[in-house]
TrEMBL record:
The keyword Electron transport does not apply. This is Ring-cleaving dioxygenase. Residues 7-132, 153-271 form the VOC domain. It comes from Nitratireductor mangrovi. InterPro entries: Extradiol_RC_dioxygenase, Glyas_Bleomycin-R_OHBP_Dase, Glyas_Fos-R_dOase_dom, VOC_core. It comes from the Bacteria. PROSITE patterns: VOC. Keywords: Dioxygenase, Oxidoreductase.
Length: 318
């Protein structure tokens, strides 16, 4: 069993409109845009990162906004719900905030004793807020959200699978331990994690297969401290029979990818070098940052990429 993985690193999803996506996460949820860059494989498409003040692993929600993308079809073989942690007693604040902004939100049945508020993103993305006790991560306070109510980072992701057995074995190999079961949902927890410590497996044997589109999670990434730990994980996965990519430099972390038995794309990402490698902390997410291989496209991209609704990151305090 591996001991290098320390919880979630980031979740990357797909969107249909960059401005709407930016507004949703920075103005409604109050996260900080910590990087404005482009998709490595499709540089005419943004890659937007939202997180806490520093872009701490376990808090980072990222998006590829493809303007012409179609809608998703929900089903098995995908991340079902991305769940954020908020302080105990804060769901009342969020109910009022969502109602004021015209966002449909609904109390969900308490899962594993945790109060949950479900809501949808601009493309029907499935999200929930969970009240969490003793989450000591410092929030980014912006958009008028009080620190006592602000999002702390990820709580968990749920995987919607036709058969959870092989993926449960994989998570156990990755260092997760079975923590609880409720109906068709089994929770796995990482010990000594970064706060984004849970993965839930929702088994849906009769459901159809999901298809990617706007609102889909493209992949979920797990955090390791550095490249040395990452190489240890890569070797162990390959020795177990998984097809794992070579290490890929993503500018703000190094990444490896592999497909799980249930069909979900997993990534293992390093905590280094971080989002301040090319911008100081006070100005994260303000300038358009391009991978070195795409820097020659800057004149085109600066006119082609649609301006974001909030071109300057509003001041906040952690």
């Amino acid at each position: 069993m591996l001991d290098q993985i320390k919880g979630l690193h980031h979740v990357t999803s797909m969107a249909s409109d960059a401005r709407r996506n930016n507004s949703f996460f920075t103005q409604l949820l109050g996260l900080r845009r910590v990087k404005k860059t482009v998709n490595f494989d499709a540089p005419d498409v943004y890659h937007l990162y939202y997180a806490d003040e520093h872009g701490t692993p376990g808090t980072v929600m990222t998006y590829f906004p493809f303007p012409d993308i179609g809608g998703r079809r929900a089903g098995t073989g995908e991340v079902g719900t991305t769940v954020f942690s908020v302080p105990q007693g804060s769901l009342g604040y969020w109910r009022e905030r969502f109602a004021k902004e015209g966002i449909d939100a609904a109390d969900q049945e308490a899962l594993f004793g945790e109060n949950r508020l479900g809501f949808s993103g601009p493309d029907g993305d499935s999200f929930a807020l969970v009240e969490t006790k003793d989450d000591g991560r410092a929030p980014w306070t912006a958009a008028g959200i009080p620190a006592d109510d602000a999002v702390r980072g990820f709580h968990s992701v749920s995987l919607r699978l036709a058969d959870g057995g092989a993926t449960e074995e994989l998570l156990t190999f990755m260092g997760y331990e079975p923590a609880a079961t409720s109906g068709n949902v089994k929770r796995f927890a990482i010990g000594d994690g970064n706060g984004a410590d849970f993965v839930d497996i929702e088994t849906l044997p009769g459901a159809g297969r999901a298809s990617l589109g706007a609102g889909s999670v493209h992949h979920v990434a797990f955090a390791v401290a550095n490249r040395e730990r990452q190489l240890e994980v890569r070797k162990a996965l390959m020795d177990t029979g998984y097809q794992v990519t070579p290490v890929i430099d993503r500018d703000y972390f190094w990444a490896i990818y592999f497909r799980t038995p249930g069909g979900v794309l997993f990534e293992v990402s390093t905590n280094e070098p971080g989002f301040d490698r090319d911008e100081d902390t006070a100005h994260l997410g303000e300038a358009l940052k391009l991978p070195r291989q795409h820097e020659h496209l800057r004149p085109f991209l600066e006119t082609h990429l649609a301006p974001l609704e909030d071109e300057t990151v509003s001041a906040g305090t952690a």
